[in-house]
Amino acid sequence: MIKEVWNFIDSGFCSPSFNMALDEALLEWHSEGKIEPTIRFYGWNPPTLSVGYFQKIEKEIDLEAVKKAGLGFVRRPTGGRGVLHDQELTYSVIVSEKHPKMPMSVTEAYRVISEGILEGFRFLGLDAYFAIPKTEAEKEDIKNPRSSVCFDSPSWYELVVEGRKVAGSAQTRQKGVILQHGSILLELDEDLLFSLFKYPNDRVKERLKRNFKNKAVAINELKTPPVSFAEAWEAFRKGFEKGLNISLKPYSLSDEQLAYVEKLAKEKYESDQWNFKR
Predict the structure, then answer these.
(1) Phi first, then psi: what are they for 247, rounded to 5°?
(2) Are 73 and 274 spatial neighbours (Cβ–Cβ below 8 Å)?
(3) Secondary structure (H, E, C), 214-276
(4) Of 221, 199, 223, 220, which Cα lies nearest the Cα of 209?
């Protein structure tokens, strides 16, 4: 049986505004029938704090700490909580809502797409699995997260290794297209991460930080010798091919497409109106 061919874009380490603009542009182009379903891998230069579409910046984020740490800052077009993008592989998946493999339910589509990430962890020799919230308290925490930190908040079909979350993802649906993107952590600086958010008091901050160690883990806390970015890149590329039963072909942006993304990055994702609107 011939496998469906999807585009694969390796855009390397880009600015926060370019990263979000390219994800948005890919969604738009796919909705217009200009490109096939696409998987993209990327990194961040500089390391960046991204916040979810609905997050309230003034209430939740310590912008002075973000600036002091020399981090980039951007609001995502997807929901979810704050994510520190540093030593990680970031992925995005762009596919039509009407694609025969995509369930209509947001959570079920999330599960199908995340099969690719699941298989990537398995290619690295990690026994990853999906965990779902079981108690009413956990389900309520999804609706009303108590923490502003992505990896500290539960979600449906979380990817877990040894009981701890190993990838954080968010999804949006616009123009009939699903955009799901997320972080696969190689390393995590917890002190830096927890310095970027506001808390009612230091006691709450320390409690959340302590609890966090039981909830989330980076790949290289679990692997010896450590996994390099290149090794993760290859494992998750193969993982998406296996998990979604597709074949990936390299895709490069034309000069015209690149110019469009750069314009969108500057006009939207670098603007205070977008980043600080809530």
Answers:
(1) -115, 135
(2) no
(3) HHECCHHHHCCCCCCHHHHHHHHHHHHHHHHCEEEEECCCCHHHHHHHHHHHHHHHCCHHHHC
(4) 199
Cα 114 from Cα 111, distance rounded (Å) = 5
The single residue of 21, 126, 150, 222 carrying the catalytic annotation is: 150
Give pLDDT tens digits for 107-158: 899 999 999 999 999 999 999 998 876 554 444 444 444 445 544 444 567 8
**Tell me: the pLDDT tens digits for 12-27?**
999 999 999 999 999 9
Decide if 62 contacts 196 (C-beta within 8 A): yes
Tokens 């205070």 sit at which residue? Answer: 272
In the DSSP assignment, the letter for residue 167 is: E
Is 14 tagged catalytic? no
The CATH class given to the 4-275 domain equals: alpha beta
